[in-house]
Design brief:
Blueprint lengths: L1 H20 L1 H4 L2 H36 L9 H4 L13 H13 L2 H20 L2 H11 L3 H15 L4 H33 L7 H16 L1 H16 L5 H34 L2
Helix pairs in contact: 1-3, 1-7, 3-6, 3-9, 3-10, 8-9, 9-10, 9-12, 11-12
Length: about 270
């Protein structure tokens, strides 16, 4: 999932200089190209994430219903005879004796797998901290664009380099460390809720596109709110005010990300009975 996301972002970011260079002649075409690229990559991402959510659900049910007596053994399936007709020792008997020595009984072992082992495995696979770190690692190409913008201003507007550098850096950090992880966490919660596979191709496509459509609106909405804050609370040519405003916006985005992360953690504990 994260490899697909990282590759998609790399391709889009590498396309940005060409799209901006041709923007005047192409008009809205470069915007549509970016939108199409994001739509395709994010749709693939959600499709793979839904399959992962179904696997998580199956793993959770398998561990919750685990019984060592129901476990199959290759030697028992072959009636304790190898390919040459020679007798085979029963691994099942050896394992059951070891389990009785280590855990006291097979029932205790079943309870251990159904309880602590299940919670540990699922907790590690859905850890919000681990998930956030992977999203940040995958989204690091976003900072390339802001570094390009910063380099451009540093070579052309020396007298206002400081405030613009602060504004650009915090804008990039806001998208990289807050906005994108928040959108992905919300998309993952919706993806898990819509994880069930449908027989109807149209219904299956709608279940994949729903998280894409809803989450895809959040990044433009975040940008619109950011611009409204600049319009209402800063002067157009006051770059010091814009730098302070961008810093405060970044702090606000971090708070929102923490809140969504806590909601994500609570939702996964409820969904997986952790």
């Amino acid at each position: 999932v994260f490899i697909i996301a990282h590759m998609g972002e790399c391709v889009l970011i590498l396309m940005m200089p060409l799209l901006f260079r041709w923007g005047d002649s192409l008009g809205a075409s470069y915007i549509l190209t970016l939108f199409a690229g994001i739509l395709i990559s994010f749709t693939i991402l959600v499709h793979v994430a839904r399959a992962f959510a179904r696997d998580l659900d199956m793993l959770q049910k398998s561990l919750a219903e685990f019984r060592v007596q129901n476990a199959k053994c290759a030697c028992c399936d072959s009636h304790h005879v190898d390919a040459w007709g020679e007798p085979l020792a029963c691994d099942r008997e050896v394992l059951l004796r070891c389990i009785n020595v280590w855990f006291g009984s097979t029932e205790n072992f079943d309870l251990r797998v159904q309880g602590p082992v299940r919670k540990t495995v699922l907790g590690n696979l859905t850890s919000p901290v681990h998930f956030y770190r992977r999203v940040v690692e995958s989204a690091c190409p976003v900072m390339w664009l802001f570094m390009d913008v910063l380099a451009k201003f540093m070579t052309t507007d020396e007298w206002r380099t400081g405030p613009i550098a602060i504004e650009t850096i915090f804008a990039g950090l806001g998208y990289w460390l807050a906005t994108i992880p928040t959108v992905v966490m919300l998309a993952m919660m919706m993806t898990y809720a819509l994880r069930a596979k449908q027989d109807c191709v149209l219904c299956e496509g709608l279940r994949t596109l729903a998280p894409v459509a809803i989450s895809g609106c959040l990044i433009p909405l975040s940008h619109i709110i950011e611009q409204l804050i600049f319009t209402e609370f800063t002067e157009p040519d006051n770059f010091h005010q814009r730098a302070v405003a961008q810093t405060l916006i970044f702090c606000g985005l971090v708070i929102v990300t923490i809140a969504i992360g806590l909601a994500f953690s609570r939702a996964r504990r409820y969904a997986l009975a952790l």
